[in-house]
Amino acid sequence: MIEWKPGPATDPWAQPAGGSAGGRDARLPAMQTGDVLRPGAADASVRRATPADVPAIAAVQTRALRAAYADILDPEVLAELSAGALEPSWTSEVGRRQSPSARHTVLVACSGSTVVAVAAIRPSEEPDADGDDGDLAVLAVDPAHQRAGHGSRLLSAVVAHLRETGVTRLVAWSPATDEARRGFLTSAGMVPDGARRTYETSDGRRVTEVRLSAALAE
User: Using only C-alpha atoms, what is the Rg of the chain?
Assistant: First the structure.
């Protein structure tokens, strides 16, 4: 996934150290989204996260990160990541009484009453961002619940929320070797825009990520 830097950092919102953002397309194709919040199954839903969801959110992100980085990082590095380490940051973000702006939001996808995916969005802090760019800081689907439409429903809800708040472009980062994640984002209408960043993990490995983006035109 995109917001955990392997090593001491445990903040799911933290930007990986190192690397730089390159240029951006002047205007990218509009993201193709489905019918927002329309479940593909009777018990599927998307809603805003609440403080009670924090343990489940941290657990989902932990499992998703371990699966995504299984072929990239040393098992000992992945073992450093735990739901307990991520919970404080999620507690702060979800539990705050007032977000910095309406564009800071955490959404969860549920199967019945079980949280199976999480998305966190915020204004983009990219060097080439303008005031109407949004950042998909976290998008994590529990590996046991993938390929059930939860990620697509969640991304549709993200786009709907950002459009309502005036965001006109969405950006997201993906490990260069994570073809599954990149394939999911491109199938939703996002495209690589030429920006790349590289950071070093606690075991000395270098991970390169590519940025994808899309215009959120109606």
Answer: 16
